[in-house]
Write a structure and sequence with these properties.
It is built from two helices and no strands. The longest helix is centred in the C-terminal third of the chain and has 92 residues.
Length: about 160
Amino acid sequence: MKPFKFPLESLQTLREQKERVAQQRYSRSLEACETAAEQLKTAETELTGGWEWLQHELGSGAEASKIMGLRGWCLALESKRNERHAALDEVNRAAKTAFNDLLKATRERKALDRFYARSRQAHALARQREEQKQLDELAVQMSGAVGLLQPVMNEN
């Protein structure tokens, strides 16, 4: 009997590659999430510091022009924080999409792996049946040959 050859081997290779690419994409998206979260935290810290400085200046009776400048600066920091928050939301959505793609690629690969295992098992079973058939035929032939030799062996 011929050795086992999986007819979908090239597809199996492609599915494994697709899964690896999905894993790498997901990993990069998680790194982007961490970076965006750190940037948001930094922007929030800067904004908190800006508001505290503005409150301190208000409490100490600073000039109106200085207070207006600090308020404008705080508004700019708030805008920066909002942009960073939107960027974090965007990379989180991208990470979720990448994760779903990874799950899909993994399911597809596993389905093909199960098909491979069943095909390999079916081939092994067919090979085992073929070997048993050959052994049975050999036993029948041997028993027939022994039956022919029986009269010769009885004479001796």
